[in-house]
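FORM 7B - TANDEM STRUCTURE REPORT

SECTION 1: FIRST PROTEIN
SEQUENCE AND TOKENS:
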Amino acid sequence: MLQTLKIIGLFSLLIIVAWLFNGCGDVTDTSTASFVGLSISPASVSVKVGSTQEFTAVAVYSDGSESSVIPTWSVSGEIGSVIRVGYTGLFTATLEGSGLISAAYSTGVAWATLEVTASTEPDVLDTITLSPANVLARVEASQIFTATGLGASLETISISPTWEITGDAIGNLTTSGRVATLEITAEGSATISCVSGEVIGYSYVTIEGFVLEITAEADTFVDETNPTVIYYSDTSLKAGYVSVTDRYYESYFRFPLTLIPAGASIESATLGLYASSVGSYDLQLKALTSDFSATTNWSTKPSIGSYLLSSSFSADSYNSLSGDALTSLVRDWLSGATPNYGLALLQEGGVDGVVVNVSVENVSNPSMLRLEYTIE
């Protein structure tokens, strides 16, 4: 009986304690509180490009209580990116501008305003690039090199470098800031170095063979409509066809070979003609099989041999005519297998139009034969 009374007394004590807590209102049961909104902190922030910023989101309930939550984070404005790290959103700024970072949880969304400004971190030189990075050239040519400094993010960095050439003695290097010019004087291989602080950029140069430009020793043209007129002293050369008068023009060129050194092996030949006026499509280049002179006219024009190549022309510039057949012809001239009577430029297809080239009498832009060769 005594034991029963003790149990009843303990039960009554528990009821009294529960009544005191609930009846008096000192503690609220939050299990019945509903979600009413979301807040984000900080609500407004300014960061610099390359820096990071943490954000936190807090859920607010109907009874006024709050709790940290893990929302879905996003960013607008293309100013950076955000990832979740535990309960926080970690924003990384990548581009100047304004935007919003948002946190979404349950039925609530909260926003914070972002302002991304330029980084105050100084640009640090990471690499130097040289253009061109690899060069294959010939003696007596020149080559320009340009250096560009780059940061780790490939942004351009201002540099005032020093230059150096190592390896074979292929030429003379002159420099001006980020630009260097190599005047090539000999065959060989060398490395161009550009240095700023501890950063170095390189270009690798190989010189094989020589270049020789030979000015025409004689040139002229002939006119079918004026068969006895001599144009040897004119400052221009006409080649082509005029359909209205059924009139043909032909131009002739001859180049001396005495400037080519003994033992030279011709690798390529290019005829350079400076056109002052262009009114035709392709013209044909052929080999002459007999000589022309200061008294040549249409009636006494030289005989014309094999076809070499066709070429179109542009006005107010040198036009380059090249091909294997022309190179072979120059080799035969040099070896003596074929007499050097020169070249003819003409229109055989009856296509209307005339090209006017500058003659050797015009010292500014005379006809040129450009040879690339090696010494055996």
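SECTION 2: SECOND PROTEIN
SEQUENCE AND TOKENS:
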Amino acid sequence: MSVERSYATEPVWKLIFKLSVPVVFITLVTTLYNMADMLFIAQTGDPNQIAAVSLSSPVFMLEMAMGTLIGGGACAVISSSLGAGDRTKLQAASSGAAVLTLAVSGVLTLLVTGFAAPLARLLGADDATAGYTAQYLFWLGLGALPAVFSTAFANVVRAEGAIKIAMIANLSGTVANMVLDPLFISGLGLGVRGAAVATVLGNLLASVLLVRYLLGKQTALTLSPRPALARPAMLGRIVTVGAAGAVTNLLAGFSNLFTNHIWMEYGPEVISAANIAGKATLICCMVVMGITMGVQPLLAFTCGSGDRARLREICRKTGLLTVLVGSALTACCFLFRGPLVGLFTDEASLAPLALHILPIGLVSMPVCGLYYLGLYGMQAAERSGPAAFLAIARQGVLLVPIFLLFHGLFGLEGLYWAGPAADLLSTGLAALLLGSLLRQQPAAVGAGRVTHLPEDDGAQKAG
């Protein structure tokens, strides 16, 4: 069955599970990938090296943000093009993603490698952590291209229905990273520098596997710059549509830059404990985000075809699934918080504090999937303005003021509660915007496009 016919006719629950389960697996693999460095660095027992990984996170998030911007925007445009039967637009979007990836990663490599030492200080490193942070940053800069490419094109190939390819690429990169981490960190005694090198090599392997697929004959996607250069407006379209997802990660990076300076007032032990406790929150968040991310191509296709009733059904059932899964994961992380923290540290100065912070971070997790559903729903409908608003509201408009307010009122304890408070408020905003979209007329949702389904033997599509 063709992708177009599947999206238009298969039962919604079947499609949600078919699309979301592989992406949830990918996001869990990505989470493990991101946690691997912290896990193995924590085994050194050196809070300065642990803090260096935490302090470097804004740059890591920036690379992920750029990949999310390019891949998320291209994914939405490609899926919408499938719904409208526009193959030319599909190839222009794929081509545009390749052009943007090269341009963005080149700039990141030059800036991060050239200014690693002053950047470490800017990120909040002190005399004890500055050297470790600069080492980690330098290698993150060298690996910008595979980091951005693997993030972007895992989304691009998923838009075409090649979910297994994206899953295999991400899994292979993660396994490589986790195998190389102990070898480089402890075996060769490279510490944080070894962790960064392992991360770069893992991303490189994932990128190679994605390129191999994209150069094959089984895909309509392309890496050639020609279709994008023939339609240069597509570059702007990808950036506009993808900005929402990127802004979330980008502002998270800037928020971390801002908050790290406050965290460091309490010493590297506090920031390390908060980062360790945040891993449980990350697990919950990434799973429900994976559900909504997996459904995004279906949302975009349905918006492109103008089928409002089916769009409502998809959103209603996806929202219910995220709440059920989010609640179950929250309960599991709370019940097993001891072993979770124990994975990263048994240090007397870190473990008790991490165990105190962890349950606070879980407060908003049962409903945080609704925030991502609203965000990806706006992105799928190519509503870049509302989508960007949601991203800005969560990580900028709400988080930073709440962080300052809670810190002023409650001191260090207030810092632990600021994130959950911002998450709950932004989830409410997302639910309101998504409800507004679903109440609109079909022409407003799908721009009046109606897709005539192709026959399975490859008959012509009409837009």
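SECTION 3: OBSERVATIONS ON SECOND PROTEIN
The two ends are 19 Å apart (CA to CA).
Residues 3-445 form one domain.

SECTION 4: SIGNATURE
Preparer initials: ____
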